[in-house]
Design a protein that fits this description.
The protein is mainly beta. The protein has three domains: 174 residues, Sandwich (Immunoglobulin-like), CATH 2.60.40; 166 residues, Immunoglobulin-like (Sandwich), CATH 2.60.40; 217 residues, Cupredoxins -  blue copper proteins (Immunoglobulin-like). It is built from seven helices and 36 strands. The strands form eight sheets. Strands 23, 26, 27, 29, 31, 32 and 34 form a seven-stranded mixed sheet that branches. It has a six-stranded mixed sheet with strand order 11-10-13-18-15-16, with no helix packed on it. It is globular, with a radius of gyration of 24 Å. 48% of the residues are buried. The structure holds copper (II) ion. The site of copper (II) ion (CU) has 6 residues, from loops.
Length: 612
């Protein structure tokens, strides 16, 4: 409650100052309305000023969604705030209690909140059109659900592009039992990406002009921006453009939306605002890191300090020490670091495409800072990323003959009597140019396990980088058994037209995916594209095959599938109802990389049985 009061208090002060400075003259009001966007001297709240609320307290909590001007990185932007800030408040819960959250929609459009990674009744999941009708403008929706897990999670809008405008925050659930993680102080670290453009126009740009935000491969549309950003002359820009046009593939297409439009944020602060995380020498600091970005993957490190990874997607893992890790959109990782001395250390979150970074400082006193590392070179996709590594050599891109292709078709939907293998799964599958339609123009002929691959641009710096193969559940999660059914799901897309989907179909063209209630199911995902896609399943865990076994494979709510990767997850279909299953890159989801999963009583039709 105190944070709520503080929030209201600070807003009242802001409003009073507003009246004093502008209320006396109509001219002042006019100037205020027409001030240039970079005039930061007016009294507008800064982003990143968020509190903390306990949603399992008796009386519950209230969240207020509003359109509001905020200073983001020193410049005024139009945000969707939650209780006056982006990110929204840290919502705390205690395992074993009931959460009670009243969401008041003061926007001029419908909204929603999805509790990311939380197991709950499907009508509390917050996806308009799938689990509920959404929250109309001006109305209040009450979420109430039992809290059956613990760990670090987050929440965000599932309506349109609202997430891109700041509609997200962290969710922390205290365990009912003693926390096995040992730490002295803890901090929220919410990474995100912000644009001063209307997200609808970002999407339009992506749809209409290929590589709009990709400065390495300029287009006419962004030639001015590129000259400004690179300091190159018009001639140089054009030369570079022509060089790229000669290539059929685009090895720099690491990210579709880049620092060309994004300001990268840590707890709502741009890098030069330097959010600080205070700790004394010798203290163990737990950083609860969530990637709440719309599109941005981050590579996170603290130069000079090893990090002990203790949790992934809210689930305790066997502690593993590393120096850097890539966090895909929507993933969470908890790391513990010990401040060794009376010095400052930089918490550095470099974007995967190296077009920018978010940054904060871990230090014993306010006002301290450490060196900011030099940004590394923009990574290039490799032949391996294009699925052309076969027996150590390169595989041609041209198609196999039709007959050869068909004989290698994957089993579409395989039933196994005694259960499928759960260890030493096949390391690669071969598949040809396939029947996945015009949305699938890419050419990976071999998909293979990449659990040991740290990701494009990582692994050559002389320090350790975490990979999925290092993730092991701290304790064997319940409900583990061999799956009895499996199917293959291709991640498909056409980056030239910005079409994304599964098995060559956009959401609007697709059927729902049916899980049979109570079954243990395997999905083998094959990424046919040259981009990484963080795939998120609502309502049920995905047990990631990380090279271990039934006891140790970690549970994830979001799995990053790298280019040409074969990635396997097992799912216990224990949550009746309808659920979303999608790529968590916001603009990919909007472009069609989304499916509805129905947990049904019978796979042979039958209606969705929410009371099973
Ligand atoms: Cu995607």
């Amino acid at each position: 409650m105190t944070d709520q009061c503080r929030f209201i208090g600070s807003r009242l002060i802001t409003r009073r100052r507003f009246l004093v400075t502008t209320g006396s003259s109509a001219l002042a009001g006019y100037l205020l309305l027409n001030r240039p966007a970079w005039a930061a001297d007016v009294d507008v709240a800064r982003a990143g000023n968020f509190g903390q609320l306990d949603a399992t307290a008796e009386e519950g909590i209230d969240l207020y969604l509003e359109n509001q001007d905020l200073l983001v990185g020193g410049r005024i932007g139009r945000a969707i705030t939650i209780n006056g800030s982006i990110p929204g408040p840290v919502i705390r819960m205690t395992e074993g209690r009931d959460a009670l959250i009243r969401v008041h929609n003061r926007l001029h459009e419908a909204t929603s909140i999805h509790w990311h990674g939380i197991l709950l009744p499907f009508d509390m999941d917050g996806v308009p059109g799938i689990s509920f009708a959404g929250i109309p403008a001006g109305e209040t929706f009450t979420y109430r659900f039992p809290v059956r897990q613990n760990g670090t999670y987050w929440y965000h809008s599932h309506s349109g592009f609202q997430e891109q405008r700041g509609h997200y925050g962290q969710l922390i659930i205290e365990p009912a039992q003693t926390d096995p993680v040992d730490y002295d102080v803890e901090y929220t670290v919410v990474l995100s990406d912000w644009t001063f453009e209307d997200p609808h126009s970002v999407f339009r740009n992506l749809k209409t002009i290929e590589g709009y935000y990709n400065f390495q491969r300029p287009t006419l549309a962004n030639i001015d921006d590129q000259m400004r950003a690179t300091g190159m002359s018009l001639g140089e820009v054009i030369d570079k453009r022509l060089a790229w046009q000669g290539m059929r593939m685009d090895p720099t297409d690491i990210a579709d939306v880049t620092g060309a439009t994004y300001t990268f944020l840590m707890n709502g602060k741009a890098a030069d605002e330097n959010p600080i995380f205070l700790a004394q020498p010798g203290q163990k600091v737990r950083l609860r890191i969530v990637n709440a970005s719309a599109q941005t993957f981050y590579d996170v490190r603290i130069p000079g300090l090893p990090m002990t990874m203790v949790q992934a997607d809210g689930q305790n893992i066997k502690p593993v020490e590393t120096d850097e890790f890539r966090i895909a959109v929507a993933e969470t990782y908890d790391v513990v670091v010990t401040l060794p001395d009376d010095q400052a250390y930089t918490l550095f979150a470099e974007t995967m495409d190296r077009s920018g970074y978010a940054r904060g400082t871990l230090a014993p006193r306010d006002g301290m800072a450490a060196a900011i590392p030099e940004r590394r070179r923009r990574p290039m996709l490799t032949m391996a990323d294009m699925g052309m590594m076969m027996n150590g050599g390169m595989q041609g891109m041209e198609g196999m003959s039709r007959g050869e292709h068909e004989s290698m078709q994957m089993p579409k939907d395989r039933q196994a009597e005694g259960g499928l293998p759960t260890e030493n799964l096949i390391s690669r599958v071969k598949h040809g140019p396939d029947g996945h339609g015009p949305a699938s123009i890419t050419m990976a002929q071999t998909a293979y396990r990449r659990l040991d691959y740290p990701g494009a641009g990582l692994g050559d710096d002389g320090w350790r980088v975490l990979t999925y193969s290092q993730l092991r559940a701290r304790e064997r999660p319940p409900l583990r058994r061999p799956p009895t059914r499996e199917f293959y799901l291709h991640l498909t897309g056409n980056m030239h037209q910005f079409i994304w989907g599964f098995d060559g179909k956009k959401w609007s063209e697709s059927d729902m995916i049916r899980f049979q209630y109570g079954e243990r199911l395997r999905i083998n995902m094959i990424n046919d594209t040259m981009m990484s896609h963080p795939i998120h399943l609502h309502g049920m865990w995905m047990d990631l095959y990380a090279g271990g076994n039934l006891d140790t494979n970690p549970r994830k709510h979001t799995v990053n599938v790298q280019p040409a990767e074969l990635l396997t997850v097992d799912i216990t279909a224990d949550a009746p109802g309808q659920w979303a299953f999608h790529c968590h890159l916001l603009y990919h989801m909007e472009a069609g990389m989304f499916r509805t999963v129905a947990v049904v009583r019978s796979l042979q039709g039958g209606s969705i049985d929410a009371d099973a």
